[in-house]
């Protein structure tokens, strides 16, 4: 992760440039003007990863420009990261400098925090971890008020929890999320909350069922499940599936069936190309799907999955890559039109952006 060019004075201009880029990409589809959801100007990123760089006897937090591993940018703080990360950075550095058990062959540090105030730190080593390390790690975790995970080749030691707990509010209801160490989570909590609110409103109150592809840890599943009769959700990552199941149970949501399948596999199942054991207890024909929600990876939906979504009256699509979003819309344009779109500035001071569209059958 290279360091963004952090300058709050340029924020309005860069956000306007992103808006115009999205408008241009969606212009061929007569999309309405995007609703724009901005980001906090600083302390918006809830996770951060740093390599450590040695100078003399000291190790420093370091980042690198893409493709250059030999010219480090040494850091004492990181203004785009959450206030909690910035508060923890110097205290953690002091700890590894003062303790050989903590500092010896430590090469990478990862922070994961939440808007709710939880924090987890992962320490990565080029050596085996022993009882001396664990004793020091337990002491440090108590001093910092965090959970710690130590990682070395073939070894993982957890002090406290291997996840953080988040709370996000959507339409007046607070949802609790378990976010595991090493699993994907939305990096910008404030903008994530705005995304959930937009998707909740765009879907509307429905009297039919929802299919969700790429559900992750249930980030969107929880609020959207309150808008429909029932949900069939899919996710391929085992850790994300386990987190999603815990999140559904923790929030008392009981109208979601979650299966560990890829979007491509579910497409094959719905097309009756082949059966899947993981769907043996799922009555696919018992669903009355009116909407599909997708939040695919940067590559977008593959052509077959995109073709599958054509069956639905409404396609609610969150994208981290507007170029592949536009390509998918082009495939669907003869049957569906864009009735709403939005820009979510998850990554200020970079060219990256998240977009959302609602497509409805013509």
TrEMBL record:
Coiled coil: none annotated. Belongs to the class I-like SAM-binding methyltransferase superfamily. RNA M5U methyltransferase family. TrmA subfamily. This is tRNA/tmRNA (uracil-C(5))-methyltransferase. InterPro entries: MeTrfase_TrmA_AS, MeTrfase_TrmA_CS, SAM-dependent_MTases_sf, TrmA_MeTrfase, U5_MeTrfase_fam. The keyword S-adenosyl-L-methionine applies. The lineage of its organism: Bacteria, Pseudomonadati, Pseudomonadota, Gammaproteobacteria, Pseudomonadales. The keyword Methyltransferase applies. The gene is trmA. It catalyses: uridine(54) in tRNA + S-adenosyl-L-methionine = 5-methyluridine(54) in tRNA + S-adenosyl-L-homocysteine + H(+); uridine(341) in tmRNA + S-adenosyl-L-methionine = 5-methyluridine(341) in tmRNA + S-adenosyl-L-homocysteine + H(+). Its EC number is 2.1.1.35. GO terms for biological process: methylation. It comes from the Bacteria. S-adenosyl-L-methionine binds at residues 186, 214, 219, 235, 295.
């Amino acid at each position: 992760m290279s360091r963004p060019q952090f300058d709050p004075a340029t924020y309005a201009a860069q956000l306007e440039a992103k808006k115009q880029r999205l408008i241009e990409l969606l212009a061929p589809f007569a999309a309405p003007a995007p609703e724009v959801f901005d980001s906090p100007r600083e302390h918006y990123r809830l996770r951060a990863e740093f390599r450590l760089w040695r100078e003399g006897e000291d190790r420093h937090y370091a980042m690198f420009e893409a493709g250059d591993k030999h010219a480090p940018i040494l850091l004492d703080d990181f203004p785009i990261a959450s206030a909690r990360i910035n508060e923890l950075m110097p205290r953690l550095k002091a700890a590894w400098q003062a303790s050989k058990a903590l500092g010896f062959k430590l090469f990478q540090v990862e922070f994961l925090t939440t808007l709710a105030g939880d924090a987890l730190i992962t320490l990565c080593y080029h050596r085996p971890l022993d009882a001396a390390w664990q004793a020091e790690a337990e002491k440090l975790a108590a001093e910092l008020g965090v959970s710690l995970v130590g990682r070395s080749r073939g070894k993982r030691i957890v002090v406290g929890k291997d996840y953080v707990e988040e709370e996000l509010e959507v339409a007046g209801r607070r949802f609790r999320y378990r976010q595991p160490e090493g699993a994907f989570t939305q990096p910008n909590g404030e903008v994530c909350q705005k995304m959930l609110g937009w998707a909740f409103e765009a879907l509307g109150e429905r009297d039919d069922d929802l299919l969700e592809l790429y559900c992750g840890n249930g980030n969107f599943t929880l609020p959207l499940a309150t808008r429909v009769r029932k949900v069939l959700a899919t996710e391929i990552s085992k850790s994300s599936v386990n987190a999603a199941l815990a999140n559904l149970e923790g929030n008392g949501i009981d109208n979601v069936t979650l299966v560990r399948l890829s979007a491509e596999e579910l497409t094959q199942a719905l097309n009756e190309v082949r059966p899947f054991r993981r769907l043996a207890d799922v009555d696919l024909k018992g669903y009355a799907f009116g909407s599909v929600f997708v939040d695919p990876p940067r590559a977008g939906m593959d052509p077959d999955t995109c073709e599958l979504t054509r069956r639905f009256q409404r396609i609610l699509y969150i994208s981290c890559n507007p170029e592949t979003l536009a390509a998918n819309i082009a495939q669907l344009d003869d049957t569906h039109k864009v009735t709403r779109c939005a820009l979510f500035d998850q990554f200020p001071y970079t060219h990256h952006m998240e977009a959302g569209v609602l497509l409805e059958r013509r």
